[in-house]
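Quick start: read one record
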Amino acid sequence: MGANSKSEDEWRAILSPEQFRILRQKGTEAPNTGNYNHHDASGVYVCAGCGTPLYKSSTKFNSGCGWPAFFDAIPGAVSRHQDRSMFMTRIEITCTACGGHLGHVFKGEGFDTPTDERHCVNSVSLSFKEE
C-alpha cells in the first residue's frame, strides 16, 4: 500500500458505508446498478478512496458483464493479487496508492481489445474526472 494508507477509522470517516464495504472490505456492488457501467464521457476514472487516476476513458468498453469494463489501466496505478475466495482463484485488482479493492481482471475471454483482458471494476470504487 502506498502513501495514502489510513486507519480503518479514518477510512470510515471519509467513505460512504457502501464505499467502505467495497473498497476496504472487498465487497461487490450488484450488477447493472453502478453509475459508470454505461458511462461514456471522455476523461479519467480515479480511485474513489484516494483520487489516484486509474483508467482512461479510451480503455473502457462494453463487455455486457454488468460492471464497468476496461482493457488496461494507467501504468502502475492498479496492482494485481491472487484471490482464492468464493471457492475459485481469480485475480483481484486494487488501487496501488491506497490498496482499495476495485474488482477483478479476467483474461482470454475473446473480447476484441488490444490486451484481451477485462478489468471488471465496481462503480463505487471509482470517481470520474471529465476532460
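The longest helix spans residues 17-24.
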